[in-house]
Amino acid sequence: MLTVRGISRSFGDLKVLDEVSFDVRPGRMTGFLGANGSGKTTTMRIVLGVLAAHGGSVSWQGVEMTSQNRPHFGYMPEERGLYPKMKVRDQITWLGRLHGVERTVAQRNTDQLLDDLELTDRANDRLEQLSLGNQQRVQIAAALVHDPDVLILDEPFSGLDPIAVETVLDVLRKRAASGVPVLFSSHQLAIVERLCDDVVIISKGRIAAAGSREELRNRHATARFEIVVAQDAGWVRDVPGVTILDLDGPRAVFEAEPQQVLAEAVRRGEVRSFTPVVPTLDEIFKEVI
Amino acid sequence: MATISSNRATFAQATWLVAEREIKTLVGTKGFWISFVVTIAGLFALTVLPTVFGGDDPKVAAVGSAVQVVKGKALDVREVADVQTASDLIRADEVEAAIVPDGSGIKVLALNDPPGDVIRQLVASPPVELLDPSAVSSDQRFVTVLVFGLVFLMFGMGGAAIAQSTVTEKQTRIVEILVSTVPVRALLAGKILGHVILTMGQVIVLALTAPIALRVAGLSELLAVVVPALGWFIPFLLLGFVLISSMWAVAGALVSRQEDLGSTMGLVMIAVMGPYFGVQFFFDNPAVLAVMSYVPFTAGVAMPVRMFAQQAQPWEALASLGILAATVVVILLVASRLYTGSLLQTGTRVKLSKAWAPAE
């Protein structure tokens, strides 16, 4: 497990991170959400050891990280970059070797990844000859070639078309399933919602919410329900204690103690559906930041 | 899988991998080969052309009794019947001059300039005794200065590839991946090592072709003098190159885009051009040359030239080499700190003071 405890960081007088703490658990995809400038990239750079923290610690398997005992990170920076004039296959293999992987193993991993990411026929092209979407897949391969212990991906899905998102997702899920903690940032909340097991929301350098997706939903669940009846649902607003949020013919969304409304509905006739309204990540996000 | 693996690349491995990539990248470019071939061609031209163009004896016509006078001289003599024929040959540019009888002696006919090279052959020069004979003529020294200076200049400027490669890494942001993977010092060391190996390879090829060029030019006797000087030039060139390489690397690390590179390259250009022009201007001034042969930046050319001209003792060269090596160590330490301090700073040009500031 990767544990971040109380890290702070300032640039000049500007405090960018303030006592940031969260966990990235093995075998789980942790979504890291935050508005632009909220400190996501700074946090990731500190975790990677590229940037020093002004206080706080980052631990791996319970041991505080130093430059000597850092785990193998697979890192995909937000501002993508690889050598434009180097051939795809050579480049991935070289990066694998730079991570300490033996040449033959690096070559084998590279070929496997290029296959998984459907890039095999571009293996001997220079990176700059590929489309941006394909370059991004190469970037994913670069982050995975050395079988990293931890994956840190800054906006891995931005700029990918829906099919490419699925391809990349498959590859990342496989890694997570094998026990690798995956931390990825994104501003595409729908993807995070569908994909992540845990969520960390950062706002203005502070952790606004953290936990499993279900936990967060329950924590932010309100007494909000949706009812669909056979006839007009206008009567719901007359039930004492009800706040109507949305009323549209036979459908009503309201906040109240639910049983009273349900009983009244059953008394009046057919109830087609009655469900608690679970907040979307989008709503939670807007609420906490 | 999720345990701390021990198979991290060592510093040496990382350095070597970076060096290997630099070499492969540069050798894969056309520009590298073009400049290398041009250099070798230039070297041949410099040594061979003067003998091709200027090596022949002057052509003269001789009339009557004058033929006896020019016999045995370094002249290409053509015997003609009379003065009129000789004059015609001069006007037709067939010969440079004509030597004709003039009373009891001879006189030289030429078109519009007294033919100095012909006259020199005909006058008896007084015997010369040198009190302190030098094995190397001033001309030979000039050629050596020119060649050493040019080679130094060429490789020094070639180091700009280090700055370009550093900027490429910053511009594409691959530097973030690199820095999170290997120590920054390994990146710097690998870049310098890669380019030193490339330079050394080129110097070796040049050192092997230079004797061939000299032999082709019929200057074998010069070879005997040049070879020991070359022996001194190579260590100076290599250390000088490391010195300049580390400066190039910093120049690259301070900016984030190729377009901005010009703003930081100035100082390094001066460090590269300085020795070249300095030695060209002062090669005949032993005092200035002596000083320059100890200044680390100019020593690379000045000391080998002094060794070549036999103006310096071997211990002087070793002392200068020691000063150079010490400077290299200091500059490497400074460069490594500046490189580390500026590599992850993007945006506008990084101020030296900011790059030097301790990591926050």
Report what the structure shows.
Chain A is an alpha/beta fold and 289 residues long. Chain A folds into two domains: 2-218, 3-Layer(aba) Sandwich (Rossmann fold); 222-278, Alpha-Beta Plaits (2-Layer Sandwich). Chain A is built from nine helices and 14 strands. Chain A has a six-stranded mixed beta sheet, sandwiched between helices. A four-stranded antiparallel beta sheet of chain A has the order 2-1-4-5, covered by helices on one side. Chain A has a four-stranded antiparallel beta sheet with strand order 12-13-11-14, covered by helices on one side. Chain A is elongated, with a radius of gyration of 24 Å. The mean pLDDT of chain A is 88. Chain B has 360 residues and is α/β, with parallel strands linked by helices. Chain B has a four-stranded mixed beta sheet. The longest helix of chain B has 34 residues, at 220-253. The two termini of chain B are 33 Å apart. Mean pLDDT of chain B is 81; it is low at 1-5. The A-B interface holds A 26, 45, 48-52, 54, 60-61, 67, 69, 71-73, 75, 77, 79-86, 94-95, 97-102, 142, 147, 149-150, 178-181 and B 1-5, 7-9, 13-14, 17-18, 21, 25, 168-169, 171-183, 344, 359-360. Chain A: Belongs to the ABC transporter superfamily.
Biggest pleated sheet of chain A: 6 strands, mixed
Number of strands of chain B: 4
**Annotated CATH architecture of the largest domain in chain A:** 3-Layer(aba) Sandwich
Which strand order spans the largest sheet of chain A, edge to edge or round the barrel?
A: 6-7-8-3-9-10
Helix content of chain B: 55-70%
Measured by DSSP, the beta-strand proportion of chain B falls in 5-15%
Low-confidence stretches of chain B: 1-5
Percentage of residues in helical conformation of chain A:
25-40%
Which structural category fits the helices and strands of chain A?
Answer: alpha/beta
Strand order of the largest sheet of chain B: 2-1-3-4
- Overall number of domains of chain A: 2
Order of helices and strands of chain A: EEEHEEEHHHEHEHEEHEEEHEH
The whole-angstrom Rg of chain B is: 29 Å
Low-pLDDT residue intervals, each spanning 5 or more residues of chain A? none
Taking the alpha carbons of the first and last residues of chain B, their distance comes to: 33 Å
> Please, what is the average pLDDT of chain A?
88
Please report the two chains with the greatest interface, counting residues with C-beta closer than 8 angstroms to the partner's C-beta: A-B, 41 and 32 residues
Total number of helices of chain A: 9
Cα-atom radius of gyration of chain A: 24 Å
Total count of strands of chain A? 14
Domain ABC transporter (chain A): 2-229
Pfam families (chain A): ABC_tran, DrrA1-3_C
Family (chain A): Belongs to the ABC transporter superfamily.
GO molecular function (chain A): ATP binding; ATP hydrolysis activity
